[in-house]
Amino acid sequence: MKKRAEIVVFLLGLAIILLAALNSSRFFARLDLTESKAFSISRVSKKLFQEIPEQVYITYYVSERLRKLYSFPQAIEDLLQEYAAYSRGKIRVESLDPLAVGEVTRAEQYGVLPQQIEVVERDQNSLAKIYTGIVIQYLDRHETIPLAVRTDALEYELTSRIRKAVSGEERVVGILLGDARRDLQQEYGRLLNGLGADFRVLPLTPGQDVPAEVDALFVIGNSDLGEFELFPIDQYLMRGGRALFAVDGVGVDFMRGLVASKMANNPTLAMLASYGVKVEPELMADKYCQNFRLPTQILGQVMWQVLDKYPYWITVAGQFASSDNPITAHFTGLDLYWASPLTLSATAGAVVEPLVTSTPDGWTLDEEPFDTNPEAARMLLFSEPENAGTRVLAASLRGELASWFRGKDIPKREGESRAWQSIVEKAKDARLVVVGDADFASNLMDFTEAAYNVGFLTNSAEWLSNSEDLLSIKTRLSRDVRLNRIQEPARRLAAVLTTEIVNVALIPLAIVGFGVARLLLRRKKSAVHAEEE
Known about the structure:
Blueprint: H1 2-22, H2 43-46, E1 56-62, H3 64-69, H4 72-86, E2 91-96, H5 98-101, H6 104-109, E3 115-121, E4 124-130, E5 132-138, E6 141-145, H7 154-167, E7 172-177, H8 184-187, H9 189-196, E8 200-204, E9 216-220, H10 227-238, E10 242-246, E11 250-253, E12 259-262, H11 267-275, E13 277-279, E14 283-286, E15 289-298, E16 301-316, E17 334-337, E18 342-344, E19 350-357, E20 362-365, H12 374-377, E21 392-402, E22 426-435, H13 452-464, H14 468-475, H15 489-532
């Protein structure tokens, strides 16, 4: 009887384990103790199934040879399986080696192209043709991640592309250059590449109507924008559009000996001031700054000529960025070139908040002529300016916004006509980002290796286009890893002293203390042993 009961208990236990295994694909959990939950998908991705009416198929094309050489294919598969596990059956995942199953043509038609890697086997080098890409299919639409080798940004790519495949809509960022001397393709390649990964970039001509399909508008530069060019921008905002303004209070011509001049009576600055963000006609300087560098050609290669610290090229670290706004919640850095400070004034129904500020060692210069020569400017670092203090360098606005053209006539230009018959005077839920520098979005960021500038710009595009949940995925693993990111002198000194005390004093004392304690313990044991004998 007892034996029969044991058999029944064993069979019931086996059945429970089997049922648990069968339901593991529907009820899934993972314990992730890392600070940013780096090894599990976010809540946004876990609830993605609520947005999917029909089946989504994800195919991971990966070469078997790549699996044997590297560990990242398994990490990618684990991430994809999490999507399937939390999708309640809405997402199905499959991993295939296109070479083994004869789907090379199909994979390449979807945009997963072969890559060549160097393989070392038996002390011999050879080139191997491998595949590692992801295809997302929904009904008759598909999205492709052509090269999947890292998992740190993969969740953002997967969730954004699944949404795009399901909705059939693409997000659009319009770019309008307010400086006629600038060329979008030649001078903003970094920005275009960064935005192009997740948005369709639409170049706009000053003065044209901003299409309704534009989710976020980037206005870069303000030297050549008059009321005629600003009217469609203002009305785009009044109709519910969102925009980033990267504008100058003092213009510096990089191609003409760094000649600097105030943007006097500039209509763009007047419009922004009416919104509640005033860009001051001043140059910002800071003792926490980058080196002034110039590219030079040596034997056909680009080399950088480093002159010295340049107080007008300000670099900002995390402690001077807002942790409350999604754009800068996980801040990795920002470099600004000849920036102007902002003065914020709250308007009725709107919230204006700083995004980025200078350090307390920052100061402003407001008298012309501005001496921007790198050799002379470095001497400013040894001065003690009377107006030193923290200044706002970038800000965001959210809420109600009144049109700058309210009560005015619609601007006209001879020979050009518009269909506008009336002025929309108020926006209920506007969003703006204003940066007092037009150069930080250009390829000038290469001069200081400021790839994080692109991160700030793409984060702004996400926030402006109402994609805050995607932004939370994109930035949750972001960290400022610069060794010199502590900018406040007092905090930097405290960190240095703490490091020195721990390394020079505490650790050696701990080792000595451990040795003394061990010696005393051994002597005590020897004494007890001697007494026993």
